[in-house]
Request: fold
Amino acid sequence: MINILIAIHCEAKPLLKHFGLKGSTDHGPFRVYESKELRLIISGIGKVSAAAAASYVFARYDRSPSSAWLNIGTAGHAAYPIGKGILAHKITDAGNGLSWYPPLILKAPGQTETVITVDRPELEYTGTAVYEMEAAGFYATASRFCTSELIHCYKVISDNRSRPASLITKDFAASLIAENIPEIDALIQQLNGLATKLSAIVEEPPPLKKMLANWRFTTYEQYRLRHLVRRWCLLSDGNINSDQSFTHCKTGKEVLSYLQSVVDEISLHSVEPQ
Amino acid sequence: MINTIYIEQEIVDHPRTLEICARFPDATLISCGHYGEIFNRKAQNFRLQKENPAMILAKKHNHFLHQAPPEYGIGGEYHYYFSHMLNCIYDCRYCFLQGMYRSANYVIFVNYEDFQAAMQEKSKEHGDKTVNFYSGYDCDSLALDPVTRFTAEFLPLFKTLPNSWLELRTKSTQIRGLLKMEPVPNCVVAFSFIPAEPGRDLEQGVPQLERRLEAMLKLCNRGWKLGLRFDPLIYQPGFKKLYQELFETIFSQLPLAAIHSVSLGVFRMPDKFFRNIVRLYPDEKFYAGPFSSQHGMTSYQRDLEQDMMSVCATQILEYIPKSKFFPCDDAYR
Ligand code: SF4
Reply:
């Protein structure tokens, strides 16, 4: 799943249409749109709103550590042409000076740049960075939920020294996002690939669920069981029958002690790297 | 190969920074305050980052030398390791770095001059006692040598420190820099090996055993002293035969006179690193092996560990005298 966070509805409109996202029936403090693979939330303007919206999605919808998070929006820059798409390689909160560095293990669909999150619209465009108002709040919050390789910010230049922010209309903002859908698509596909990879890694070994349902284990025993079942599955190359192997076990403790002896035995005889 | 380079503001104009950046003209350069902002952050996945690591150029401010663990020794009285670089371009599944660091990015500390000053001081402090400096603890000493110019910068120093030795530890074949210079008599170029069969799966990106042996032969013909490091020993059924073949292949090709030292140690790492790696690679069969934990360290079960050590020690001592043999546990000498 990819969670997309956008500040205002007009910027989201082209994406809702392109990805066929439907409004959630759940009436909470934020408007949420969903498909099978994407979720989009309208956060409102500013880093506090962005942080709150990200927290809301995590708490209400998606606690998976392998979901990806993407902040999309418009931004200003001294000289970059209007409509240019930028992936953030560094995000600085102008308020407190803290910075985040989204790891660029994916191939950026366009240019990357430093993004500075400000509390009020930046009209001077000092330096070479891109200015906007949500990224730092979003990034600081989302990186509490998942690994930073899966969290990114993509901004489309909407204003610069020759075309000030006062000229941006709702339709204009929507058109800027719409023009960059190919880049956004490319980004989403790569994020999807990484998220899928990560979710395959964190997947529980298949027999575990059944065993947890069939016997009772304390929290510590569950931890041991998970560890032993993982080793058992790897060492047996998946050729195991959890239904038959433990028919003689009456308690969770018996399961653990039998499984330990099985794993000890096969680990000496079958360890060959994959 | 490197698409992103993070640079600490403090060393943005350091000549070595400029030299390294010039080698990657297409890389995106990103300035940062302290490398830890990137390297030490929580919420990073070493395994994902290993797919496309970035480089971080930084300055080391203190703790240039660390006392080496006693089992690291190859003779001499004092032992220190140092890390001009953190992380490695290879991807050995058994490597402790993936359990120790959160990030797979390569950190290069560009202020070599400060490391060298610390070495000079330490060497002086110990008078005429032998001091060993080990360079391949948190990285491979040579794998990135064309970029870091580590050997070209550090080896001349050792010509002026006759009581000190430098160990370069490597799995690479990047020896061009060494072949260009006169051999340094107090430097050991040490190569690590595991048998080819587990190596193929467990050592991603590492040059084949034959190519490493070729590199060793070139170095020895040029007059460099060589080290052999069978550490970590890796278990798999039939390990006795696999190691026997490995020792035979290596010792039959290298002249004994060129071998400075051979060390031996089983796979071991702190429990915490082991747990971190299992979390990163829950699908890795190697980590499902016959391991156990003792005193905070994970290694093979005691009987197996002893068996591996004694079998390999006996086999090695068929090829070399005891004076060149440095097992991590003196019981096997
Ligand atoms: S070569 Fe050494 S440092 Fe590099 S990954 Fe392998 S074990 Fe680790």
Remarks:
- The longest strand of chain B covers residues 225-233.
